[in-house]
Amino acid sequence: MALAACSSPAPQVDDKLARAAKLSAYKGDAARGQTVFAACRTCHSLAPDVNLAGPSLFGVVDRPAGTVPGYHYSPANRASHVVWSEQRLFTYLRNPREELPGTFMSFGGINDPQARADVVAYLKTLK
């Protein structure tokens, strides 16, 4: 007679913090990030005060979410209290809808962590 295995569930890990912490493992390259960002230009302007389907990303690093004047944000984004730090952007760009449920952003994300680090490095140059 076989005995049923008895095990306790694995401890839960905060996946958001674990993914965010990984940014420090990559050295972002702004020039490569500019190339990766080309796919984002369909919806996002890099010019100040120019919103397209998405808000302008000029000065996005360290900006509070939902604060670009004239852009209609989702209620989830406006109420998120997120500040777009480099690590937060790195995490968000992996899967925006998972990281900020209710966002209007329909982009599927960037799986490659090096490419995400490169985009963050590029966005950091836009001030």
From TrEMBL:
SUPFAM superfamilies: Cytochrome c. Coiled coil: none annotated. It comes from the Bacteria. Keywords: Electron transport, Heme, Iron, Metal-binding, Transport. Residues 28-127 form the Cytochrome c domain. It holds the Pfam family Cytochrom_C. This is Cytochrome c family protein.
